[in-house]
Specification:
This protein is α/β, with parallel strands linked by helices and 261 residues long. It has 9 helices and 6 strands. Bound molecules: 3-methylbut-3-enyl trihydrogen diphosphate (2 copies) and magnesium ion (MG).
Length: 261
């Protein structure tokens, strides 16, 4: 085995899923279909989806989930009809404006991941201010992915990593997975333990392609506006029943866990 393979061993702090997940990542999907079911416009679905976001944050804070990552707007979502994109931008701006103080009061640090340069200067200003306001909070980390794409994240990290190697005279074949991982957008959070996608689709849609390598995946048919604390609990319960093997056998995992209980 090469040193690079050893270094790529994934984060294992939650090998025993009897404990709560430390990091949960969610693709919040189904706002549009929820609205259509109610005979309302897609915009109404996005508005209702904001309430579900608040509930998921409250649930995570209450249940000791230290890192929550929410996919709010993908780099591919720009291709939606302009009025829908505008509404999503307005909702994003309003959430940054009105929720930063509440996050701070609850000890939650906000971290936006994605290419923010495509947003209006107003949104960029609100984003910087909300991040600054919560920068010292250390009870929970809330990562919100906006104009984010997993492939964008990997190529950006690769560019930085190879530029660093060049500057430090390190041959490219000595660059490791760990060197690249520390330049990813979520370098400060452990890899997600649990991934949840609502809305019934069973795909990753260009979300956290690198970090999901050993994450437990959970797909729910529930549309995002209906995803409440009970649904979150159900996902965590399923997670707790999983055996995380990281390439080992079930027997090996069980014999190691004996020492932790
Ligand atoms: C997720 O809900 C929200 C965003 C992608 C911004 P959708 O808007 O994708 O809802 P569906 O999938 O059309 O129901
Ligand atoms: C993924 O949902 C992106 C977000 C939830 C922000 P989409 O609704 O955009 O995904 P696809 O297009 O169905 O794959
Ligand atoms: Mg969708």
């Amino acid at each position: 085995m090469t040193s690079s393979e050893i270094k790529s061993t994934p984060h294992r702090s939650n090998q025993n899923p009897d404990s709560a997940p430390e990091h949960v990542a969610i693709i919040m999907d189904g706002n549009g279909r929820w609205a259509l079911e109610q005979g309302r416009t897609r915009v109404a679905g996005h508005k209702k989806g904001v309430d579900a976001v608040k509930e998921a944050i409250r649930y995570s804070r209450k249940n000791g989930i230290a890192h929550l990552t929410l996919f709010a707007f993908s780099s591919e979502n720009w291709s939606r009809p302009e009025p829908e994109v505008s509404t999503l931008m307005e909702l994003f701006a309003s959430a940054l404006d009105t929720q930063a103080e509440k996050l701070k009061d609850n000890g939650i640090r906000l971290n936006l991941i994605g290419n923010l340069s495509r947003f209006s200067t107003r949104i960029q200003r609100l984003a910087a201010s909300a991040e600054a306001m919560t920068a010292k909070c250390d009870e929970m980390m809330l990562n919100v992915a906006v104009n984010y794409g997993g492939q964008w994240d990997v190529i950006e990290a690769a560019r930085k990593t190879f530029a660093e190697a060049l500057a430090e005279d390190i041959p490219f074949d000595q660059v490791t997975e760990r060197d690249l991982a520390k330049n990813l957008a979520l370098a400060h959070s452990p890899d997600p333990d649990l991934f949840i996608r609502t809305g019934g689709e069973c795909r990753i849609s260009n979300f956290m392609l690198w970090q999901l390598a050993y994450t437990e995946l959970y797909f729910s048919d529930v549309l995002w506006p209906n995803f409440n604390s009970d649904e979150f609990d159900a996902a965590v319960e399923v997670y707790r029943g999983r055996e995380r093997r990281y390439g080992q056998t079930g027997q090996q995992v069980k014999s190691q866990l004996k020492y932790y209980v």
